[in-house]
Design brief:
Number of strands: 0
Helix content: 40-55%
Distance between the termini: 18 Å
Order of helices and strands: H
Largest sheet: none
Structural class: mainly alpha
Strand content: under 5%
Protein backbone atom coordinates (compact mmCIF):
# COMPACT_ATOMS: atom_id res chain seq x y z
CA UNK A 1 0.00 0.00 0.00
CA UNK A 2 1.36 3.43 -0.88
CA UNK A 3 1.80 6.36 1.49
CA UNK A 4 0.01 8.80 -0.82
CA UNK A 5 -2.69 11.00 0.66
CA UNK A 6 -5.88 11.84 -1.17
CA UNK A 7 -7.63 15.04 -0.18
CA UNK A 8 -11.12 15.74 -1.44
CA UNK A 9 -12.14 19.38 -1.83
CA UNK A 10 -15.74 20.28 -2.53
CA UNK A 11 -16.70 23.67 -3.95
CA UNK A 12 -20.28 24.87 -4.03
CA UNK A 13 -20.79 27.56 -6.67
CA UNK A 14 -23.75 29.08 -8.46
CA UNK A 15 -22.60 28.87 -12.04
CA UNK A 16 -20.45 31.30 -13.92
CA UNK A 17 -16.70 31.13 -14.20
CA UNK A 18 -15.83 31.53 -10.50
CA UNK A 19 -15.70 27.85 -9.53
CA UNK A 20 -13.79 26.90 -12.67
CA UNK A 21 -11.18 29.61 -12.09
CA UNK A 22 -10.84 28.73 -8.40
CA UNK A 23 -10.38 25.02 -9.10
CA UNK A 24 -7.77 25.72 -11.78
CA UNK A 25 -5.81 27.99 -9.43
CA UNK A 26 -5.98 25.38 -6.68
CA UNK A 27 -4.76 22.65 -9.05
CA UNK A 28 -1.86 24.81 -10.29
CA UNK A 29 -0.82 25.66 -6.74
CA UNK A 30 -0.89 22.01 -5.67
CA UNK A 31 1.15 21.01 -8.75
CA UNK A 32 3.79 23.70 -8.13
CA UNK A 33 4.13 22.67 -4.47
CA UNK A 34 4.54 18.99 -5.52
CA UNK A 35 1.45 18.08 -3.56
Amino acid sequence: MSDEKIIEISMHCRGGQTCITASQLLAEMAFEKNF
